[in-house]
Design brief:
- Helices cover about 15% and strands about 35% of the residues.
- Strand 5 and strand 6 form a beta hairpin.
- The protein contains 2 helices and 19 strands.
- With about 325 residues, it is of the alpha+beta class.
- Strands 8-13-14-11-12 form a 5-stranded mixed β-sheet. It has a 4-stranded antiparallel β-sheet with strand order 3-2-5-6, with no helix packed on it.
């Protein structure tokens, strides 16, 4: 019995020693936890001071809400918004939400530049956005206008010229303006302008040939009258180029009414008067040449006058 009691006494002493050790170790741990909590609080205060979020400075950390609308008052989502501080050039970027809103927090008071842009809209730039020192949040609305394109569409459709089945002849024509403006190589004889028509050549004697035919094979007409020389078959008549309204050369497959000309037809049409008096002048101001002194150089002034002899009845040209 004495041995058993001794063992129980030893166990009680061991248990009391263990409890005392636990109390001592927990007491030693508590100062370290308190020290860690103090270090964490100090670090938090330092971070707030560095980021300008200290409660002792109420002038920082302002909020600005941007609301983007189009010209019809409809919100514009996914618009890119850039807010740049003018002094520090610090940029805050973001996009509007489905309600067309974008909020910027932690802004320092001062002047900002605001840029809003989106595809399909004209960009908006505001350089005088002022963020105040008041603690309440500020908001502003920006209107984006849709881009407008002005276009004109023209459809050019080629239509081939109509084929006249009744016309079988091949012809080339010079108008009155072309006859006057074409530079003549020598004198203003109408035969000197005929080589400018395709298929017509002029020989050394001044006679013309159509598609290689002889001159006497050409049927010459002036306002429908035959002006071919009855003996030589040549065109001996001199016609002023300024008096002609048109020149038509028919090379092949012409009508049977021109049967006397086997080489081609030369049809000259003169001008016509009307109920108004008209006057025109060509080469009216002379030119000078200085090769052998100063003298006139090939000056051939020409003038035409047309008008009514009796209105609506007869005219002259």
């Amino acid at each position: 019995m004495n041995g058993t009691q001794s063992i129980k006494a030893i166990l009680r002493v061991a248990t009391i020693a263990s409890l005392f050790a636990v109390v001592i170790s927990s007491t030693a741990i508590r100062p370290s936890l308190a020290e860690n909590e103090y270090i964490l609080l100090c670090a938090t205060d330092a971070h707030r001071s560095a980021t300008g979020q200290n409660a002792s400075n109420p002038q920082t950390g302002q909020r600005l809400t941007i609301i983007i609308l189009d010209e019809n008052g409809v919100v514009v989502p996914s618009a890119r918004v850039t807010l740049t501080h003018v002094e520090t050039q610090t940029a805050f970027k973001g996009e509007t939400d489905y309600a067309g809103r974008r909020e910027f927090a932690g802004l320092a008071p001062g002047l900002y530049t605001l840029r809003v842009e989106k595809e399909g809209f004209y960009a908006v730039v505001l350089s005088d956005v002022q963020v105040g020192e008041a603690s309440e949040a500020a908001s502003m609305e920006i209107t984006l206008n849709h881009q407008q394109e002005f276009a004109e569409e023209i459809d050019v459709v080629y239509s081939s010229p109509a084929i006249d089945p009744a016309k079988t002849a091949t012809s080339e024509t010079l108008s009155g303006i072309e006859i006057i403006n074409i530079p003549y190589p020598t004198t203003r004889d109408v035969r000197n302008v005929l080589p400018f028509i395709p298929g017509v050549v002029q020989d050394n004697a001044g006679q013309v040939h159509i598609n290689g035919s002889a001159s006497h094979q050409i049927f010459d007409l002036l306002d429908g009258f035959n002006i071919t020389h009855p003996v030589s078959g040549l065109m001996e008549l001199r016609v002023s180029a300024d008096a002609l309204r048109s020149i038509e050369v028919i090379g092949s497959r012409y009508s049977a009414e021109y049967g006397k000309g086997s080489g081609g037809v030369l049809n000259l049409a003169t001008g016509m008067g009307d109920d108004r008096y008209r006057f025109s002048a060509t080469n009216f101001i002379p030119s000078f040449q200085t090769n052998k002194g100063v003298n006139l150089d090939n000056w051939t002034p020409r003038a035409t006058l047309s008008g009514p002899l009796r209105k609506k009845k007869a005219w002259f040209f």
